[in-house]
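PROTEIN DESIGN WORKSHEET
SECTION A - STRUCTURE
LENGTH: 210
TOKENS:
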């Protein structure tokens, strides 16, 4: 199966997908793309604007995963940042909804778009898995709580997750970044999708109903 993995980061969602699929990953920052390539040497990694790459190439893939930037939608930035007087108000990045609408109405394969639970009522109703919202053209069933790492996507455990050190996050996710000298390592790890959730959703895309 041909898979497009957009805004790939360090590939938390992809970590348990294995090497049976033809995977193309798109990441804007070359430093992070190099880490992804080292972690998943069989994937094709492209340093580019994922939003533009999607509109140019979406019809070439069987399954598309997209994780557009989340800070402008996040409850943390709005609650602790804006109301805490630490950041200014910003426009929400509407690339999120542009991609949802594009894939929903023009794409014939399976897709999943992931983002944080926002501080506002969603403009398009998502499915909820743990701490995140997902927009997909198939039903994502509940993942067993006992699945490795999923407990950290609950609200209470999620707060504990934010307090973990980079080494603890690496152990939690099963992703070793120790060989790499990269900035904001802790942020990259915190932003990574739970590998068990990524695997669960990929399986659901192949088995579930639209």
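SECTION B - SEQUENCE
RESIDUE ASSIGNMENT:
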């Amino acid at each position: 199966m041909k898979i497009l993995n957009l805004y790939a980061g360090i590939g938390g969602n992809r970590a348990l997908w294995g090497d049976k699929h033809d995977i193309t990953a798109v990441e804007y920052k070359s430093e992070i793309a190099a880490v992804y390539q080292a972690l998943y040497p069989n994937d094709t990694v492209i340093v580019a604007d994922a939003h533009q790459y999607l509109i140019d190439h979406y019809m070439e893939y069987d399954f598309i995963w997209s994780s557009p930037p989340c800070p402008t939608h996040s409850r943390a930035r709005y609650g602790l940042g804006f109301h805490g007087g630490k950041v200014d108000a910003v426009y929400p990045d509407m690339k999120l909804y542009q991609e949802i609408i594009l894939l929903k109405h023009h794409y014939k394969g399976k897709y999943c778009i992931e983002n944080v639970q926002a501080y506002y009522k969603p403009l398009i109703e998502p499915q909820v898995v743990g701490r995140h919202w997902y927009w997909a053209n198939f039903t994502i069933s509940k993942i067993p709580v006992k699945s490795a790492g999923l407990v950290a996507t609950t609200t209470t455990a999620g707060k504990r997750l934010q307090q973990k050190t980079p080494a603890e996050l690496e152990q939690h996710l099963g992703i070793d970044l120790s060989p790499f000298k990269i900035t904001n390592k802790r942020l990259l790890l915190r932003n990574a999708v739970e590998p068990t959730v990524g695997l669960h959703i990929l399986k659901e895309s192949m088995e579930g109903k639209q």
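SECTION C - NOTES
Confidence is low (pLDDT under 50) at residues 145-157.
The first strand starts at residue 2 and ends at 6.
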